[in-house]
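User: structure tokens for NUDIX domain-containing protein, please.
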Amino acid sequence: MSPYDPSAFPPFGVTVDLVVLTVRRHALCALVVRRGEPPFQGRWALPGGFVRGDEDLAAAAARELAEETGLCAHDPASPASANGAHLEQLATYGDPQRDPRMRVVSVAHLVLAPDLPAPKAGGDAHGARWASVADLLGQEAGFGREGEQSGPLAFDHARILADGVERARSKIEYSSLATAFCPPEFTVGELRRVYEAVWGVALDPRNFHRKVTGTPGFLVPSGGTTTRQGGRPAQLFRAGGATVLNPPMLRPEV
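Assistant: Done. Predicted tokens:
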């Protein structure tokens, strides 16, 4: 039997890519970075990078998240990460032509977090910014809302972003993950605007209030109020202990 010879096999790499979603100014936004090196130098892309030889996929995704956003991933086993961002594996992408350098398989991850500050570029990126998902996936529009035009996202990142957005849209129907976009204490109105931004629809305020406050374990009153929305004081809530919503919050048909 001949010994194993690594050089007999073509180069092969594994990367992690991050679909980092947040709600800014009532719009669903994703983090993008401008590539500073070939391939696709100068193009916008999702943050990510190659998995190091001494780390598993979850560790690589958490490292890239910290490097690109300064956020720590929420770890259910660690009380210190209670306020960390929600991080979950999304899907694996392995088209042989997706990276012109060599055969690269990407394990994409979805990150949901509250309104975040302006990002700082790290690693080999020459820029980083939040961009409207509607603009990113509408390539003809580019980044027109903020006056900056761009071609399509690098690699197959438009497909990965679209898959991540659809995962977020579906998961907030039957789980409590919409609260991951909110601060620790929030109003029902603020939560409603999260649903509206992620789904891209307008919701009836009264029906929404009735549904979310009537769903067992979804919201817990914090005991406080706020006037940050203007008008009369609004009651503040925290995320309850429920992870699955029963009944689910079904998105309207459009």
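User: Anything notable?

Assistant: Residues 157-174 form the longest helix (18 residues).
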